[in-house]
Amino acid sequence: MAVNPLPAKNILSRYTAKGFSHPIWAARADRLQSASGVLLGLFLIMHLHFESSILLGKEAFYQVAQFLEGGIFSETGHGFPILTQIFSVVMLLVVLIHAVFALRRFPTQIGQWRALRQQMKFLPHEDTKIWFWQMVSGFLLFFLVPVHLFTMITNPEIGPHLSAERVVYQNAWVLYVLLLPAVTIHAIFGLYRVSVKWGLITQRFALLKLAKVMLAYLMVLGVASLVAYIIIGRSLSLPVVPFVPGL
């Protein structure tokens, strides 16, 4: 007697993957990971340029800080530090969302890391190397970024003197020395990979060269800004008095 085959629907439902392994949910997770990554990458580029205003002098950085904190809406012209706190909380949530979706592709076993290293050794493809360094930098950022954001949430005061005090007297320079290369590498190469993955730019080699130039440029900009804060911080005496324009 012939056995009636199970309906195709039942067979598919039995073997259908669940969670992020399901093709539909995996595609949605990829889009959310890419969207949150682009948001964070663009924010980093703007953030480093805002910070670099210290290179133009204390007055320039003070005006930029007051503008970002909504100083134009204040009768005194001073910004509202609570805006920095709110924005830091929002960015922390975006970072957590990006990290959750990125961890899906993170090697969790020693054997997977060995296989990746062997592939990089015998097939030295540049995009594979970029993906590897994105994983390494992403692992570091998982610990470094929350520390930076928690600092801004608990101590949102921004200014030439107050920021320099944080860098020098609170030893934040140690955090920034680790954070700057990790976040710059992760962000710039992340924007490159998103552009290639979603077909936004077809000239992959030209885009990769641009990414490397941007990486070098942002590193120089970030290091120069950090050195400026250190120089200002060392010139201050405790207790540090907030910067006042014209004095």
TrEMBL record:
InterPro entries named among the record's database cross-references: Fum_red_B_TM, SQR/QFR_C/D, SuccDH_FuR_B_TM-su
Transmembrane segments: 32-50, 82-103, 130-153, 173-192, 213-232
Pfam families, sorted: Sdh_cyt
Primary localization class, coarse: membrane
Coiled-coil region list: none
Family matches, as SUPFAM superfamilies: Fumarate reductase respiratory complex transmembrane subunits (SSF81343)
Cellular localisation: Membrane
Cofactor: heme
Keywords: Heme, Iron, Membrane, Metal-binding, Transmembrane, Transmembrane helix
Functional description taken from the UniProt entry: Membrane-anchoring subunit of succinate dehydrogenase (SDH).
The name this protein goes by in its record: Fumarate reductase cytochrome b subunit
Organism: Shewanella phaeophyticola
